[in-house]
Amino acid sequence: MRTADSGRFAFFDVDGPQFVLEDHGWRRRQTLIAVPAGPGFSHKTLRPWLTGLASTVRTVYLDLPGSGRASREPQADFTFPAFVNDLDAVRSRVDSQNPVILGHGWGAALAIEYALARPAHVSALVLVSPLRYFNLSSQDTEAQTRQVERTDSSLGPRFARDVMPAFEAAMTGRGPWEPVEKSRWWSEMLLTQFVRQPPKAWFTSLGNEPWGIRAYAAYKGATLARADHPIASYDLTLRASGLPRGLPVLIVSSNHDANYVAKADTHAAPLHHALSASELLIWDDVGHFPFIERPEEFVAAITGFLARRADTQ
Predict the structure, then answer these.
(1) Higher pLDDT, 299 or 173
(2) What's this model's pTM, rounded to 2 decimal places?
(3) Domain holding 175: CATH number?
């Protein structure tokens, strides 16, 4: 489903009914909107591993403009305000007044930005492997390089030889984006973000999925190369300090994030300390995708969090 028939639109799909019949009558179910790890990442990085939530919530899977099946306008606006509007359009289409927003990686920042802009339309946040900063200085590049070497020593040389020339040409308008987005190198590079080999379902789900590298490079990725980029100085903890007091927040992270970008001590822990009503889980045997490496525990953590929140209402 789309949020518009033409022009800019997000794509979304829904698992589970809006209403359920119980002993005392019909009950409207809680809606959870799942936001992927950033511009360029499709809902398929989340969908197969959240199906266990079906008994608890109605889950909405989302492709933002520039990603997956959403619109891919060449000059689209890939800033937080534009994405907040896209997310709100989806919320309205699925007829949910105050959903839970689950954000993974960069998606955790969008979840917070949405809660800041639309506080009346958020009941709780689930922030998975959140990134406090997006600039290069916040990343442990030496550790990341070691992880890449352990996973596949050919990744670096192949990027320099096969991907970087086309990527730089596309960035400067001297070449098309299509061959860059179709490159299998991006899928191979994502394997460095796991502690162990991902399950077969990962490859089945994303086997033919194109990456929205144009959207990624225009916004999140550009911070790695441009110190003057609008979000190069972004601090998620400072932004989160403006959230409504008492908003329930669950944070799931790891100090052994396999790509060494979102380590809990640097990113998640300061966020937790800034939010009085937050809960923090640190699983040090997973990488950047904890819901894939520990799917049953991840679903149980969310289910328990939502149950505790319901008990206090």
Answers:
(1) 299
(2) 0.93
(3) 3.40.50.1820
